[in-house]
Amino acid sequence: MRFVHTADWQLGMTRHFLAGEAQPRYSAARRDAVAGLGALAAAAGAEFVVVSGDVFEHNQLAPAVVSQSLEAMRAIGIPVYLLPGNHDPLDASSVYTSALFVAECPANVHVLDRAGVHDVRPGVQIVAAPWRSKAPTTDLVAEVLEGLPADGVTRVLVAHGGVDLLDPDPTKPSLIKLASVEDALARGAIHYVALGDKHSLTDVGSTGRVWYSGSPEVTNYDDVEADPGHVLIVDLDEADSKRSLTVEAPRVGRWRFSTLSRDVNDTRDVADLDMNLDLMPDKDRTVLRLALIGSLTVTDRAALDACLDKYSRLFASLRVWDSHSDLAVIPADGEFSDLGIGGFAADAVEELMKAARADDETANDALALLLRLTDHGQQGRGAA
């Protein structure tokens, strides 16, 4: 038996740092990752798809998001089993019980809307632990595993949430207890555990049968999500009494959320940063956060600003990570001596330089603007 394990689609997600047309492209990429599971499943010979929670970003979605998402699921072409998670629980406002979802839900899409066993076909079952609120007060997995027999049926547990091994917080009653899961695996009541909630590909414990698939399209920076962008192709040998297992993790994600740390202390460092940004592929699908450390002259800072301004128009998002950056601007001696200004204007520049040396950010910005304006003016006279 072969199936696809995926999770955390979070359809309808927005990212505050995506401006203009980048956000619609990102949303479309998330839907495309879902629709693309059809070709992947067909190539792998998969029978069905399980989605281990957080199918949607939340329950209050625009009608267009619901309709487009269901159309993407329809395109998969084989049965798709959706587990409500913490983002889209089966509460009173659930998207899964909305009139629009019920009316447009394709025949191949099934909501795992009750805890316990769901028949897939003779000899194969899904054991589901859906969320009914954003804050369960018990281990939902332990409840569905209790009393589950080892009777020769091949079973896949589909669940959502943190595991105590990875998040040992005694104040979280909803944590999945790995010991009870591994006990059910050991006695043959279940044979694979498809988890959602953690957005990076993660093998949990030592059995090789408990996995987070991660999100198929990245949702956060690389310091939070180490290995996103995968789905899992799971193969359980039904002819083997122990249900021997293979798990493959093809990469399907196309976007990147990356962090680049650089020291910038002179014009050569700025030029080196420019070259690195220029060589990065797929800029329109890359969200880049810069951690910049160094001391620059006003001239070099103006060159850095011009560099960042250029690439901010090319990347899906490019921004300086303020909390991890420390850029000092120190005017160099004679840096403004050849501007051809005198009198009151020269005195004003001198005062700005004193303030800039005292780490006055407004003065730094004013001097950088003066350099840019002066440079543009000189270029204009040269062209004339």
Helix content: 25-40%
Can you write the helix and strand succession as a string? EHHEHEHEEEHEHEEEEEEHEHEEHH
**Could you tell me the strand content as a percent range?**
15-25%
Count of alpha and pi helical runs: 10
| End-to-end C-alpha gap | 75 Å
Q: How many beta-strand elements? A: 16
Radius of gyration: 27 Å
Secondary-structure-derived class: alpha/beta
Give the biggest sheet: 6 strands, mixed
Adjacency order of strands in the biggest sheet = 4-3-2-1-11-12
Organism: Mycobacterium paraterrae
Keywords: Exonuclease, Hydrolase, Nuclease
Family: Belongs to the SbcD family.
GO molecular function: exonuclease activity
Question: Could you explain how this protein is built, in words?
Answer:
Helix content is 32%, strand content 21%. Strand 6, helix 5 (140-145) and strand 7 form a beta-alpha-beta unit. The strands form three sheets. Strands 4-3-2-1-11-12 form a six-stranded mixed sheet, with helices on one face. A six-stranded mixed sheet has the order 5-6-7-8-10-9. Strands 13, 14, 15 and 16 form a four-stranded parallel sheet that branches. With 384 residues, it is an alpha/beta fold. It contains ten helices and 16 strands.
Concise synopsis of the structure shown:
InterPro entries: Calcineurin-like_PHP, DNA_Repair-Maintenance_Comp, Metallo-depent_PP-like, Mre11_N, UCP033093_metalloPase. This is Nuclease SbcCD subunit D. With 384 residues, the chain is of the alpha/beta class.
